[in-house]
Design brief:
- This protein is an alpha+beta fold.
- Among the domains are: 161-288, Calcium-transporting ATPase, cytoplasmic transduction domain A; 387-433 and 738-929, 3-Layer(aba) Sandwich (Rossmann fold); 530-686 and 723-733, Calcium-transporting ATPase, cytoplasmic domain N (3-Layer(aba) Sandwich); 931-1111 and 1140-1178, no CATH class.
- It contains 41 helices and 33 strands.
- The strands form 6 sheets. Strands 14-33-32-31-15-27-30-29-28 form a 9-stranded mixed beta sheet, with helices on both faces. A 9-stranded antiparallel beta sheet has the order 17-16-26-25-24-23-22-21-20, sandwiched between helices. Strands 3-2-4-13-5-11 form a 6-stranded antiparallel beta sheet, with no helix packed on it.
- Strand 32, helix 27 (909-913) and strand 33 (916-918) form a beta-alpha-beta unit.
- Helix 4 packs parallel to helix 29 (974-984), helix 9 (376-392) runs parallel beside helix 30 and helix 19 packs parallel to helix 28.
- The longest helix is centred in the last third of the chain and has 41 residues, at 923-963.
- Residues 1-25, 28-33 and 469-512 have low confidence and may be disordered.
- It catalyses: ATP + H2O + phospholipidSide 1 = ADP + phosphate + phospholipidSide 2.
- It is found in: Membrane.
- Residues 911-1161 form the P-type ATPase C-terminal domain.
- Its cofactor is Mg(2+).
- This is Phospholipid-transporting ATPase.
Length: 1227
């Protein structure tokens, strides 16, 4: 009896194996765990949290922080992060040296830009960290019911929970810390926990408390509760726990089944009580929160190399300038009487030219520092953030069903999206929906279910299309060709197509009544018609096994007046839905029974039957089966078992193999259709047989120590044999919408696609056919281990040699293949892969895999996924992209150059570890082919242009140095140089990086081959980089020498005076602004009003600044006082020189582009001209022909299937024509 005032759940499952066999007993004195020494020092005093605030305990609070900085560490850490960049270190040194007398500039002109750039970058870091801080505060501020004394509970923030606190967690709430479960609302202290945030699994886990704490069943019971927990120290292992509870002078062993981990959620249980063991960063989930690996884009890595090249150039120029200065001082200084050489400093002492040269080196390093753009990094960061915003806001990647948009979780890798070579994808939940639909079944050797799987539908559509021979309109959608039959077809063809159409077309009734988890359709079983079948008793048993053999919990659904099921797997839930729809509804679970409502006809009333659960042998990945032992209402005892077909078939009795041959054939057919299968079996137990076994089982349950698991497994094997086969089930894990089309487009874009899945080989192969990764005619290379090798005396060596031989033979076959259209698919399982990934084999394996059109790795572990990804990344040296949706994909996602998380039903672990997240696989096409292409070209052009403009500007200082005796005198005003990178030329280059489009998004999707410009690195190779640098050198020569030549001897003012240094310098600077602005305008292919505003606005800003600067006091403006109004604006030579220099600087670029477009145009040049002259509208045939040419030759995807069929038909036609010519030719 429960105590008054306590509402207890009616569920009692203590007699079930899965719930009770792990319940520990009291530790005997001779087997008590001392739990002392390293790793086992934690002591928790239950219900006494204040004891843990003092040393030596002093455990951390429950406050958690995932931020990178705090108030104290922000400045030092953020500054350190900024000065990890080589360029920023240089500018810091230059700013410090600007405080010395040898600096050519005022300190403000050097310090201000550096402070602006560093400050902006730090502000971005602070903003991102502030967002993390706010997320942390949201979690830390959640409320939980905590015992505050005398049996009274009150709500308190998570962050104020301490070790030893007793908390009460209610249904659908997260656990605030790692807890020891004391009791629950159910009589036997079980509760259901969802661990989706920990391991990505949606199935519920069962936890149970110790029997000794079941009496703590209401708030008042905790008024005098005390106890001591001695356990392991904080560690990241989620699935282990070692500890003891000392309670009421007894010691009880603890294991993971009593531990509730932080961030898991209480489900299907009104409430639980628990005591806090680990808090804050000691909790297992926080111990597992590793920092994501630091990823840098390929362009950013190459940027460092360019900076080093420019820095080397800077040092070289500075050395030349310093040597020139030292020579001038030694030779010329004695003759310059006006410089008073006999009374001067070390800087100009002709007796110490070496000292003068060294001091001038410092001056030169500062003066020519404009070769390295100070605002490059901050501009790139700003551009990437804005690019990420456009990705996040793209409505074409918004999933209306889930409400999830695409999300760029980091902006550092935007341009890498446009350079991917290989995609490594998970299958379940990524290519498929992770939604299981009961589709077919085999009962008593008869197959039921007429609805086709998506794999069968795709194959049927493709075959019907091939039979029609409609090769000319291959791009026409299937729905536009409803007529499958040709008038001149033979009877065989017509028959095939009629059958296909029957298979594909679902009935209208099915379309009207869509039930989640149930797509089965067969009138022989539905509406009670199964009673008319010859083996009705076997069918009855089949339905009962579906309804009874499980661990699910029913939840009433008021809307449908039926039940929803919380099951440990989607497969199990689909079985229960199928049983319900076929008349066997699981409706209630009580203390030791399950109740089934059986309905034998559509109009008849249901009969509620009770099955008493005697034992339950739970499913595990090792066992690959589960069994339940029940007693029916007639007192008979049955063992009902379901599991993998390979396991069940091995455990059948001789008399139980009546339907084995037919069922095995059906299982093969289901596997070929891409369905997941399980076999169902049973046996009836005699009373004496059961009791004898149960005694052995109870002994195994009560055994303590390492032998316990082995004894339990042995006991299970004893009873799970001599079974009778009943049938098999087939459920479909549906393909996500648009997956085949997306894969086809990515293949046309030249991307290689690997599938890494934990599913068995048959299922993976069938999904490969459904996705068009595999096709008929493709040669499959299956590398597997043989049973004889495993049983050999030296098993490892034998298996290794066999695999090595298979890889070598396959590689030889691929190399010797002379047919250019031949395609190979490599298929390998996890066991074989473990050998193939060893150091002496992996390179051979990779070489074979790269030579194949598609690669499918099945039965692979999460670690193997990461190892394969690393092998491809390091072995090929090309960019890899990994995409997955579950916790088992995290390693792969973090290992790849780019990680994509699918925000699906398997939790958020993959998304949290990813660089980008999307809600459907099909959005990957737009993310790469559109945004990836744009981002790569934008960043590449932006960086090249940055170096161009800075070289064009910086080298003019060197030329003037030569004219000024290498004195360190700058031709420009300090403020001109300060504003050049920061204000005057920054916005146009940002607009180039954000808005530039060589072609529209529609054209990117129509011409996927354009994507290959990224992987081939056509826009950021050394040829293009050096070309832009050469353009900068040319422009600097024209700007300087043409202006000097114009102003040298020409009258500048109306009075005949020539120009001074301020006028010449300002004119040169005006020419630079016009030249680089016009250059970026010529570079852009796509203009918006923003780009027009920024480009022409930058020129206008220069004139406005010059006007206002000249109007300032001479103390501020110096030699630039009224320079625009009184000196430059009235002088025609100023305007004409600016125009002439600007045109001269940009003529070579125009000539180069014109020549390239006319003689050797790139793909996007051709498309741009077609679009500009509207040829795509006026000549559709030509447009279609160009589209067909603008795709990479691929051997996978729907297009490859069509191409293969075209070649086949052409071959037939050629043979037919050759035969006709032979007949017509005279003998």
């Amino acid at each position: 009896m429960s105590q008054p005032g306590r509402t207890r759940g009616k569920l009692h499952l203590s007699n079930l194996y899965s719930f009770s066999c792990f319940r520990p007993d009291v530790l005997q004195s001779d087997s008590q765990h001392s739990l002392q020494g390293p790793g086992f020092s934690r002591v928790v005093y239950c219900n006494q949290p204040r004891l843990h605030r003092k040393k030596p305990l002093k455990y951390p609070t429950n406050y958690i922080s995932t931020t990178k900085y705090n108030i104290i560490t922000f400045l030092p850490k953020a500054i350190f992060e900024q000065f990890r960049r080589v360029a920023n270190i240089y500018f810091l040194m230059a700013a410090i040296l600007s405080l010395t007398p040898v600096s050519p500039f005022s300190p403000v002109s050097m310090i201000a830009p550096l402070a602006f750039v560093i400050g902006l970058s730090m502000a971005k870091e602070a903003l991102e960290d502030w967002r993390r801080f706010m997320q942390d505060m949201e979690v830390n501020s959640r409320k939980i019911n905590v015992h505050k004394g005398d049996g009274v509970f009150s709500y308190r923030a998570w962050q104020k929970i301490r070790v030893g606190d007793v908390v009460k967690v209610e249904k659908d709430r997260f656990f605030p810390a790692d807890l020891l479960l004391l009791s629950s609302s159910y009589d036997d202290g079980i509760c259901y926990v969802e661990t989706m945030n920990l391991d990505g699994e949606t199935n519920l886990k069962v936890k149970r408390s110790l029997e000794v704490t079941l009496s703590l069943e209401e708030d008042a019971a905790f008024s005098d509760f005390t106890g001591t927990i001695r356990c392991e120290d904080p560690n990241p292992t989620l699935y282990t726990f070692v500890g003891n509870l000392e309670f009421e002078r007894q010691v009880y062993a603890l294991d993971p089944n009593q531990i509730l981990l932080r961030d898991s959620k209480l489900r299907n249980t009104p409430y639980v009580y628990g005591v806090v063991i680990f808090t804050g960063h000691d909790t297992k989930v926080m111990q597992n929160s590793t920092k994501s690996p630091s990823k840098r884009s390929s362009i950013e890595k190459k940027l460092d190399s360019i900076i080093y090249v420019l820095f080397t150039l800077l040092v070289l120029i500075s050395l030349i300038s310093s040597i020139g200065f030292a020579v001038k001082i030694k030779i010329g200084m004695p003759d310059w009487w006006y410089m008073q050489p006999e009374d001067t400093t070390n800087m100009y002492d002709p007796q110490k030219p070496e000292t003068a040269g060294i001091l001038h080196l410092i001056t030169a390093l500062i003066l020519y520092g404009y070769l390295i753009p100070i605002s490059l990094y901050v501009s790139i960061e700003l551009v990437k953030v804005l690019q990420a915003m456009f990705i996040n806001k793209d409505l074409h990647m918004y999933d209306e069903e889930s409400g999830n948009p695409a999300q760029a979780r980091t902006s550092n890798l935007n341009e890498d999206l446009g350079q991917v070579d290989t995609i490594l994808s998970d299958k379940t939940g990524t290519l498929t929906c992770n939604q299981m639909d009961f589709l077919k079944c085999s009962i008593a050797g008869i197959s039921y279910g007429v609805v086709s799987s998506e794999v069968e539908m795709a194959a049927a559509k493709q075959l019907a299309f091939d039979l029609n021979g409609q090769v000319s309109g291959a791009s026409t959608p299937m729905h536009s060709r409803p007529q499958y039959l040709s008038e001149n077809r033979g009877s065989d063809f017509g028959k095939s197509e009629i059958e296909l159409e029957t298979i594909i077309t679902p009935t209208s009734e099915r379309q009207r009544h869509m039930i989640k988890g149930f797509s089965f359709e067969d009138s022989r079983l539905m509406d009670g018609n199964w009673l008319k079948e010859p083996d009705a008793n076997v069918i009855l048993l089949f339905f009962r096994i579906l309804a009874v053999c499980h661990t699910a919990i029913p939840e009433p659904n008021e809307e449908t007046q039926s039940f929803n099921y919380e099951a440990e797997s989607p497969d199990e839930a689909s079985f229960l839905v199928a049983a319900r729809e076929l008349g066997f509804e699981f409706c209630k679970r009580t203390q030791s029974s399950v109740f089934i409502r059986e309905r034998y006809s559509s109009s008849g009333n249901f009969i509620e039957r009770e099955f008493k659960i005697l034992n339950l042998l739970e499913f595990s990945s090792k066992r690959k089966r589960m069994s339940v032992i029940v007693r029916d209402e007639d007192g008979r005892i049955f063992l009902m078992c379901k599991g993998a077909d390979s396991i069940i078939l091995d455990r059948l009795s001789k008399s139980g193999r009546m339907y084995e041959e037919e069922t095995t054939r059906h299982l093969t057919e289901y596997g070929e259709a891409g369905l997941r299968t399980l076999a169902l079996s049973y046996k009836e137990l005699e009373e004496s047989e059961y009791h004898a076994w149960n005694n052995e089982f109870q002994k195994a349950k009560t055994t303590l120590g390492s032998e316990r698991e082995a004894l339990l497994e042995r006991a299970s094997d004893m009873i799970e044999k001599d079974l009778i086969l009943v049938g098999a089930t087939a459920v479909e894990d549906k393909l996500q919408k648009g997956v085949p089309q997306c894969i086809d487009k990515l293949a046309q874009a030249g991307l290689k696609i690997w599938v890494l899945t934990g599913d068995k080989m048959e299922t993976a192969i069938n999904i490969g056919f459904a996705c068009s990764l595999l096709r008929q005619g493709m040669k499959q290379i299956c590398i597997t281990t043989t049973e004889s090798d495993i049983l050999a005396q030296n098993a490892h060596k034998a298996v290794k040699e066999n695999i090595l031989m298979q890889i070598t033979n396959a590689s030889q076959m691929v190399k010797l293949e002379k047919d250019p259209h031949a395609a190979f698919a490599l298929i390998i399982d996890g066991k074989t892969l473990s050998y193939a990934l060893e150091d002496d084999t992996k390179n051979l394996f990779l070489s074979l895999a790269v030579g194949c059109a598609s690669v499918i790795c099945c039965r692979v572990s999460p670690k193997q996924k990461a190892l394969v990804t690393r092998l491809v990344k390091e072995g090929t040296g090309k960019l890899t992209l990994a995409i997955g949706d579950g916790a088992n994909d995290v390693g792969m996602i973090q290992e790849a150059d780019i990680g994509i998380g699918i925000s699906g039903v398997e939790g958020m672990q993959a998304v949290m570890a990813s660089d980008f997240s999307i809600s459907q696989f099909r959005f990957l096409e737009r993310l790469l082919v559109v945004h990836g292409h744009w981002c790569y070209k934008r960043i590449a052009q932006m960086v090249c242009y940055f170096f161009y403009k800075n070289i064009a500007f910086g080298l003019t200082l060197l030329y003037f140095e030569a004219y000024a005796g290498f004195s360190g005198q700058a031709v420009y005003d300090d403020w001109y140089m300060t504003l050049f990178n920061v204000i005057l030329t920054s916005l146009p280059v940002i607009s180039l990086g954000v808005f530039e489009q060589d072609v529209s998004s529609e054209v990117c999707l129509q011409f996927p081959a354009l994507y290959q410009q990224g992987p081939k690195n056509l826009f950021f190779d050394w040829y293009r980089i050096l070309g832009w640098m050469a353009n900068g050198v040319y422009s600097s020569l024209i700007i300087f020498f043409l202006n000097i030549h114009i102003f040298c001897e020409q009258a500048f003012r109306s009075g005949g005076q020539t120009a001074d240094m301020a006028a010449v310098g300002t004119t040169m600077f005006t020419s630079i602004i016009w030249t680089v602005s016009l250059q970026i305008a010529l570079t852009m292919s796509h203009f918006t009003w923003i780009q027009h505003l920024f480009v022409w606005g930058s020129i206008s800003t220069w004139y406005i600044f010059l006007l206002l600067y000249g109007l300032a006091s001479p103390l501020v403006s110096g030699n630039a006082y009224h320079i625009l109004l009184e000196a430059l604006a009235p002088a025609p030579i100023y305007w004409s020189a600016t125009l002439l220099v600007t045109i001269a600087c940009n003529i070579p670029y125009l000539a180069h582009v014109s020549f390239q477009r006319a003689v050797n145009p790139m793909d996007h040049h051709v498309i741009q001209e077609i679009k500009y002259f509207k040829i795509d509208v006026e000549d559709r045939r030509m447009w279609t022909r160009e589209r067909s040419k603008a795709r990479q030759k691929t051997k996978i995807g729907f297009t490859a299937r069509v191409d293969a069929k075209i070649r086949q038909l052409r071959g037939r036609l050629h043979k037919k024509q050759a035969g006709a010519q032979n007949v017509a030719s005279p003998r």
